[in-house]
Design a protein that fits this description.
This protein is of the alpha/beta class and about 280 residues long. Among the domains are: about 30 residues, no CATH class; about 45 residues, no CATH class; about 100 residues, TolA/TonB C-terminal domain. It contains seven helices and seven strands. The strands form two sheets. Strands 3, 4, 5, 6 and 7 form a five-stranded mixed beta sheet that branches. Strands 1-2 form a two-stranded parallel ribbon. β4 and β5 form a beta hairpin. The protein is elongated. The protein starts with 7 loop residues before the first helix and ends with a strand. The relative contact order is 0.09. InterPro entries: TonB, TonB-dependent_transducer, TonB/TolA_C, TonB_C. GO terms for molecular function: energy transducer activity. Belongs to the TonB family. It is found in: Cell inner membrane. Its main location: membrane.
Length: about 280
């Protein structure tokens, strides 16, 4: 007899025939299908509520992000009339005080000495006695003056302007001179560290030297002139070949302007030398 084909009610009655149906097991078995159905419906309801809440929450968030808040109203700015002060005319410079020339000494006309007879000398051409020369100045004419005055030859020719002209600097005679030692030596822009970076960034190891494993130090001498320009570049060290000397000379000639050396407060040309190290890694 197959239990699957027997109605549940009849099967329970047969199973609990002659047993205590009030104990509880009979009631549990009898309402088993109802409890399973209620549990499935409750679980499905909870899942639907969670899904609906999630969807509603997303829609609220999306609608909230699309709300554009209007900028606050800005009151129009009233243009302000610029305060333009009328230019006041500058007062004229004060007039230079008129000064009278200082008093001068009495002067005696200079007479060219000549050997002639006393009676042939005119009184105005006679040489003055020595005691008069201590209080009088020798000039082109004979004129009166003040004993405490100045020599007439010290007076300026013509009226003065009251303006002192700036002194004209003496022409330089050391532009072509090359110094080997100065008070302040020339320097590369940025110092020695910047010079080392420049050499490392711009030197290209010659292919011929790399293929033949040629390396070493090439000492290059040059002149930093009074304007900071590089000139008269030449190699001092023994030739190593492979294009090392040519590459070192090329990089030195292409350097930017240096800060020139100074001697006695003036920029001068200075002889300088740099060792360029070629090393294969």
């Amino acid at each position: 007899m197959n239990t699957a084909t027997i109605p549940v009610t009849d099967f329970l009655d047969i199973l609990f025939d002659g047993r205590n149906k009030e104990y509880g097991a009979y009631a549990l078995r009898r309402k088993y299908d109802q409890r399973v159905r209620n549990a499935m419906l409750g679980t499905a309801s909870i899942v639907l509520v969670v899904i609906a809440g999630y969807v509603i929450n997303n829609r609220l968030l999306v609608s909230g992000t699309h709300i554009r808040s209007l900028p606050p109203a800005i009151a129009p700015i009233r243009p302000i009339d610029p305060l333009i002060e009328e230019a006041k005319p500058l007062p004229p410079p004060p007039a230079l005080p008129s000064s009278s020339p200082p008093p001068v000494k009495p002067s005696i006309k200079f007479v060219n000495p000549a050997v002639v007879a006393d009676e042939a000398v005119a009184p105005e051409d006679a040489p003055p006695p020595m005691d008069e020369l201590t209080i009088k100045a020798v000039g082109v004419t004979t004129a009166d003056g003040v004993e405490d005055g100045i020599d007439p030859s010290l007076l300026p020719e013509g009226p003065g302007t009251g303006v002192i002209e700036a002194p004209v600097p003496a022409p330089r005679d050391d532009r072509e001179k090359v110094f080997t030692g100065v008070e302040i030596p020339p320097s590369f822009p940025g110092g020695l560290e910047a010079l080392a970076r420049y050499l490392g960034d711009h030197i290209r190891y010659p292919h011929l030297a790399a293929e033949n494993n040629i390396s070493g130090v090439v000492t290059v001498q040059f002149v930093v002139d009074y304007e900071g320009k590089i000139k008269d570049v030449k190699v001092l060290s023994l030739p190593r070949g492979g294009g090392l000397e040519e590459e070192a000379t090329r990089v030195i000639k292409a350097m930017p302007r240096w800060k020139p050396g100074r001697q006695n407060g003036r920029a001068v040309s200075v002889l300088y030398s740099i060792p360029v190290n070629f090393r294969l890694n």
